[in-house]
Each structure stands twice: as C-alpha cells, then as structure tokens.
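Chapter review. Work through the record for Uroporphyrinogen-III C-methyltransferase before attempting the end-of-chapter questions.
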Amino acid sequence: MGKVYLVGAGPGDPDLLTIKGMKAIKAADVILYDRLVNKDILDLAEPSTKFFYCGKDPNKHSLPQEETNRMLVNLAKKGHVVTRLKGGDPFVFGRGGEEAEILAHHQILFEIVPGVTSGIAAPAYAGIPVTHRDYSSSVAFVTAVNKPGMSKETYWQHLAQGPETLCIYMGVKRLAEICELLVRHGKGIDTPVALVHLGTTDAQKTVVGTLGNIVTRASEIKNPAMIVVGDVVHMRQKISWFKEQVTDSTLVNKA
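Structure tokens for Uroporphyrinogen-III C-methyltransferase:
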C-alpha cells in the first residue's frame, strides 16, 4: 500500500509553496495536479516522476472528480507515493475533503498539507488585508454558488448582513448578479469592491470600485480572479506594494 499527500500548492507565486509541500512533491513518484498549479512548482519533482493533469476548467471538466478519486485509490493500492497538488489550499474549495474521505474509506494512508489560499494571498498582494482593526473584524470565504439546500436569496441575504469582509471565489462571470444581490439584501451601493486577477503572479491585475460601479470597471477582468467586498479595500490606497504588470491604466483607478 502506498501513500497520498493532499497538498496545497499556493495561489500562484511558487515562493509561497510551503516547505512541507515541497517535500511531498520531491517524495512523490506520481503527481496529480490541477489547473491553477504554477508549472514551476512541478519542476521540483524528481525526473522520474509521472504527472497526470486533473484540472477543472470553468467551462469543462478535463477529468471528472470521480475519476480523480479512483486514480488516487488505485495508484496508492499499487504502492505508489502520490502527491495530489491543488491550487491554494486543498480544504478551501479544493475538494480535498472529498478526496480525503475516499482515501479514508479505502484505508489508504494520507496526509493533508495546507497551502496559502488565494482568498488571503491575492488581496494581500493587492495591498488589501482581509481584516483590519479599523475596518473589519470578520471575514468569510465563499463561492458564488449558493450552498445545496439553500435558496439563492437566502444565501446572499446571509452574506450581505453577516461578515464585514467577503472573499468570493469563482464569481467573475456572476459579478453583476452578486453585486445586485448584495445591494438588495442590505449592502450599501458604495461598499468598496476589488477584483484581483491572477493574484500573486507576474500577471496580477487589480480593479477597485464599488458595488455600484465595479461591473463596468472590471469588464476586462477574466477568470481566475478573487472578489473582495468590504471597507478593507480602502487600505489599498495606503499599502499597495506589489508591482502589477498592467497595460491598461483604467484597471488601477481607485474607488
């Protein structure tokens, strides 16, 4: 029986990979990796390592999750040391919990190696702390898709009236709807919003606006991007530190 490491590869900057994550990559003879894993991180593996792409693109699933689960189980049962590389953190919208559950069911030895999630790292590289003593003492990491068993209206009402900072994953295509729902359920139309595209990488771009105008301002931003909603976005004006490779000056207009 082999072993599986469920590893968070971080948000994009390869230097944000943890030391334990690097050790798991070097120990593996098979690596299954996702779409948002920086390819430079794969170079850390031994030359004999075999790679399998398990990425899930926004418009298609290159490999169904069930097939990924089967691969993890079958490879481990054949005695392989497998590292399952996921962008960000495996337990933050990475289906790491589902894969760990399958491995536990088959009594396969596994380890969880947390990673730096984009919900914290992308705002940080844009000069936006997700909490701040003057602006926010609570933060929620959410997806743009409402939880199973909860209506869309209930989901966004809960978020609009809850945490002071929202970090929204996988929401670019639904940005207009998200803004409308948050305003409808209590967020002020002047609430600051930032979109950080490809955060922590050389291609990072940040757009800042409000719930009332961010859809127009961010029209050029594509997936993947983190949406940050809350007064903490104001801090970008003071502590923006990462030099972004922006060619269109309209992308960096301040709120």
